[in-house]
Amino acid sequence: MTVIIVEDEKPAAEKLMKSLASIDPNIQVAAVLPSVKDTVSWLHQNPVPELIFMDIELTDGLSFRVFEKVSINCPVIFVTAYDEYWQEAFEHNSIDYLLKPVKMEKLEAALKKYDKVKQYFSANYQNLVNWPNTNPAGSFKKRFLVKRGTDYQSIRTEDIAYFYAAHKLVCMVDNKAQKFILDQSLSDIENQLDPAMFYRVNRKYLLNMSAIKKIKSYPKSKLLLEVEPPLHEEVIISQENVSAFKAWMGQ
């Protein structure tokens, strides 16, 4: 099995490498990467490994930024000294969240979990491949039941302008600028919506195509979106996501 380690503390990286070797000598560490920048660069130039061990607080920011810049389709085991990021971690391919100092039995359990996940998806590969073709259009979510005060309200999906994450909450805004708080993660909501209608433009925003009113050029080959109802901050498409976003808009 090929893995990479994203870790900015050399002693921690070396300890993890030794622990992995003692658990399974067949584990090959393809790279040890100390920063968001180095990780993005490596992933752009190399095949995605089978598994990633990833610290969260790196020298140049949170490792979650990696997922904004490059597509990662392999499982991730987060290894960190902080417990406040666990919820966000599970929005980014996480199959486990280990706290430093990592105990050997916890690491072994995480690797066993990886093996179970791998076996499951290998056994169900054909079903996964055929899923987009067998998923009927009507299976996408048509309405959201939301609470406003003491009352409940049903909002049609086509009347939703966008969803966004802020301060560990996810909010939904309709085309009348009404805001509602939801008890689901942005990733869970994304999986329920028609991808032809909604697009995850970055880690924070999930937009309805109809809410995008203007697309402007932005420095460093990025794009700036103007949406309706308007937001109080800029919505930026990163350089790495520009091609995919243009393809989605032109479908």
Explain what this protein looks like in three dimensions.
There is one protein chain. The chain is globular. The chain has two domains: 2-131, 3-Layer(aba) Sandwich (Rossmann fold), CATH 3.40.50; 137-249, OB fold (Dihydrolipoamide Acetyltransferase, E2P) (Beta Barrel), CATH 2.40.50. By secondary structure, the protein is an alpha/beta fold. Helix content is 31%, strand content 33%. The protein has a five-stranded parallel beta sheet with strand order 2-1-3-6-7, sandwiched between helices. Strands 12-11-10-14-13 form a five-stranded antiparallel beta sheet, with no helix packed on it. The chain has a three-stranded antiparallel beta sheet with strand order 15-16-17, with no helix packed on it. The model is unreliable at 125-135 (pLDDT under 50).
Which CATH class of the largest domain is shown? Alpha Beta
Cα gyration radius (Å): 20 Å
Succession of helices and strands:
EHEHEEEHEHEHHEEEEEHEEEEEH
Q: What's the CATH topology name of the largest domain?
A: Rossmann fold
- The parts where pLDDT drops under 50 for at least 5 residues are 125-135
Helix content: 25-40%
Number of helices: 8
Structural class: alpha/beta
CATH superfamily of the largest domain: Response regulator
- Biggest beta sheet summary: 5 strands, parallel
Counting copies of identical and different chains, the oligomeric state is single chain
Average pLDDT figure:
88
Query: What proportion of the residues form beta strands (DSSP E)?
Result: 25-35%
Annotation, overall tally of beta strands: 17
Shape: globular
How many domains is the backbone divided into?
A: 2
Distance between the termini: 38 Å
Spatial arrangement of strands, main beta sheet? 2-1-3-6-7
- CATH architecture designation of the largest domain: 3-Layer(aba) Sandwich
GO molecular function, one term: DNA binding
Pfam family, one: LytTR
Domain HTH LytTR-type: 144-251
Modified residues (4-aspartylphosphate): 55
